[in-house]
Design brief:
This protein has 343 residues and is an alpha/beta fold. 35% of the residues lie in helices and 25% in strands. It is globular.
Amino acid sequence: MISVLREAEISGHIFWNDRMQKGTLKLDGDTPVFSRKTPNFPKLEGTLIPAPFNAHVHTADSFITEEPPSELFASVGPGGFKHAALGKATASQIESGIRRAIEAMETTGTFGFCDFREGGASGARIASGIRSNLVKVILGRPGSVKEIDEVLSVSDGIALSSLPDTDEEMASLSSERTHRAKKIFALHLSEAVREDAIAAISLRPDFLVHCGYCSDSDLEAIRKEDISVAITPRSNAFYGLRVDYGRLLRFGINVLLGTDNGMVSRPDLFAEMSFLYLSSKNYARMDPEKIISMATTNWHNVFPAVSRKLESSFLLFRSRMMTPYEVVMRSSGEKVFRIKLKE
């Protein structure tokens, strides 16, 4: 478990306004305020970044220990390896998988997560009922149209698979009822092949996942609707998918970072950041500050309720003045502290 510190102010290298800056952070009322001034003898110093949030994870399949197929559809498609394993699993096995994933996130410096929870209302209920120090956003997936309202009653919204895997009535009613309930609606798009982005956009998602095989016109349409996209580089690499994630940034899309299936990738955002930096070099260097923003600040617009809860929460690398490159490439496994600013 990561130590929790409650401090009035922190000095050192502060990731503020999506840039690493030297200065001091403290509260003004309930609002964190950054100053370029640093005391001669700071009480606590180091490198401080905002609370990391895992924007896309499937926690329950963390109990699966067998190697999944390397072909995406055979692994996670309808009737594939993952869904077969989940269908045979007991509630206690699924719960153990979720707890294992949460423990991994707690120990690697994640403050909250958005779980795309399969298994209908029962799957969402299991995930929602687990107590955790992390802020949870549980998005359920109904097994039928009749289950939509029940899933919404025990979750924070609905997250669907890709549209080719989803019945048209299920997709439209899930969107309609989730928006009516003022909850979060999301879905996967163009993970391994190009899919109908206009149809996905018409469902008014709060955010999309993947979009690696979207065309330029698809990405331009997503940008025009101001829809954020969560990416999961390590999982994509497992399935042999080569994606230029920099395209999303070049189109001006707000990009979030997630870790996807627990059976493939341990939910460690720092490992995800370093892999993204390395894999992007196959196309063009990606600015480490952009990558840190994906994990720590870009998610605020999509999850405003979480943002309010974590507004004064930060992660501290104590007594170390790190560059953005170091945070991205050399911080996985470092000892970190959770900081809750207080007056």
